[in-house]
Design a protein that fits this description.
Largest sheet: 8 strands, mixed
Order of helices and strands: HHHHEHEHEHEEHEEHEEEHEEEHEEEHEE
Radius of gyration: 27 Å
CATH architecture of the largest domain: 2-Layer Sandwich
Structural class: alpha+beta
Distance between the termini: 59 Å
Strand order of the largest sheet: 1-11-12-13-16-10-9-4
Oligomer: single chain
CATH superfamily of the largest domain: Bira Bifunctional Protein, Domain 2
Number of domains: 2
Number of strands: 18
CATH class of the largest domain: Alpha Beta
CATH topology of the largest domain: BirA Bifunctional Protein, domain 2
Strand content: 15-25%
Length: about 425
């Protein structure tokens, strides 16, 4: 969410952001409602001032004059109440429109309408050169009985699955490995619930635009979260932190849920696009400083690069264009990992800087140690690792001719020291 004062003073800039981010929002409409509201507020404030003047004169007035002043005060009070009633729906309209206003993207972010216009800025790792016909991740999992894609969907519906055997061990090993790396860097590792209030989803910006992707628990008026970011972003909602408290660095594990609304027919096979998954999310709250935000953005990106380097998975870093980054993002980088079966890179990480866009929604602030001024914080996030999606490049890149899968050296201590899984004795 932007500062309304900024929108009033820079309508052309905001309109341009709306345009390049492909958002359905009429800034002129927002400002027209704002002008109506401001006019009503000015009238209400003027009447309140009159009422205060009248009230101050009542004790000193004579009996007849006092009755007249009381009557006049009541009439003004009625008018103020009528104005307040008129303001309420306008305030609600403004609030809903403000939820849709985008962050002004970084000046060097690519301009584009979809992921087709994202820009590859870095390619790392050597692609595997198999001297045999490689299997895809689904074939590998079924070959070794590492997953159930048939019985469980009959019980739980499409896009559901069950991991088994060594793949369960590998999933837990990957999360322990990732959390250990984050803890060594000073991040507070934690778990968070998988459900949250509507206000928390509004706080991250997932609502109102992406409401259809969330499962709703009607009886409890809660939603299932697709990322720990939803909870982490509201941990300090309404608080005024001290500058010395910052940065706050969180690394949180949580089961995640997404309805995948609008993805019918896409990636229905295997572990690419499922309704339930697990993830470790990185989340940073820092000072309202562009240079510091940029440094933390690079740190979050490097953390995920280090994971992929240790897991020996080739990848690309993509600079996301304005139409693909979402309304709240100032700058966004995706990391796409190589999937041999499709002969392409697929997204496994998404690293975003949102400046104070989320903080304004949650009212999370800090007090500047030099000026004493209260400022909104900046927030940033990135995937550390998510399963089962990471299994696609992991299994496919490390498969061997005999159908086994080699474990990179970094993960072996978490898997009992073995070098291969699925290898026949």
């Amino acid at each position: 969410m932007l500062d309304l004062k900024f929108i009033r003073e820079n309508p052309a800039v905001v309109k341009r952001a709306v345009e390049v981010k492909c958002i359905n929002l009429d800034i002129d409409q927002l400002l027209a409602i704002d002008n109506q509201l401001l006019a009503l507020k000015r009238e209400s404030e003027s009447l309140s001032s009159q009422k205060n003047t009248i009230s101050a004169g009542i004790p000193k007035a004579g009996k007849e004059e006092r009755l007249a002043l009381v009557t006049q005060s009541k009439e003004i009070g009625t008018k103020i109440a009528e104005l307040t009633a008129k303001m309420k729906p306008l305030e609600e309209q403004i609030q809903q429109l403000m939820y849709l206003t985008p962050t002004i993207p970084a000046p060097d972010a690519p301009i584009g309408k979809s992921d087709k216009e994202n820009v590859v800025i870095k390619t790392v790792g050597e692609l595997p050169n198999f001297d045999f016909k490689p299997l895809d991740h689904l074939e590998l999992a079924e070959k070794h009985g590492w997953a159930d894609f048939k019985r469980v969907p009959n019980i739980c519906g499409n896009r559901s699955y069950s991991l088994r055997g060594d793949l369960v061990k590998l999933e837990l090993a990957l999360f322990q490995f990732a959390l250990d790396k984050m803890a060594k860097q000073g991040f507070t590792i934690m778990t968070v619930p998988s459900f949250a209030s509507e206000q928390a989803f509004l706080g991250t910006g997932h609502f109102p635009a992406d409401r259809e992707s969330a499962y709703f628990i009607e009886k409890d008026n809660q939603y299932l979260a697709g990322t720990a970011e939803v909870v982490l972003n509201s941990l300090h909602a309404g608080e005024i932190l001290q500058e010395s408290d910052l940065p706050l660095r969180y690394s949180a594990f949580s089961p995640c849920f997404r309805r995948e609304a609008g993805s019918a027919g896409k990636d229905v096979r295997g572990l690419i696009r499922v309704h339930q998954f697990n993830k470790v999310e990185q989340f940073i709250i820092c000072k309202n400083d562009l240079a510091e935000s940029k440094n933390w953005h690079q740190t979050l990106l490097k953390n995920s690069e280090d994971i992929l380097h240790d897991l020996e998975i080739p990848y690309q870093i993509v600079d996301c264009c304005t139409g693909d980054m979402g309304p709240g993002k100032y700058r966004m980088f995706d990391i796409n990992s190589w999937c041999p079966s499709e002969n392409k890179y697929r997204e496994t990480h998404s690293c975003s800087s949102l400046l104070d866009w989320q903080a304004r929604r949650t009212n999370t602030r800090y007090r500047d140690s030099k000026t004493g001024k209260v400022e909104f914080v900046h927030t940033l996030n990135n995937t550390e690792i998510a399963t089962p999606r990471i299994f696609v490049p992991f299994l496919e890149n490390h498969q061997q001719k005999d159908g086994s899968v080699r474990l990179p050296a970094a993960i072996r201590p978490y898997m009992g020291g073995v070098e291969f899984i699925g290898k026949k004795a």
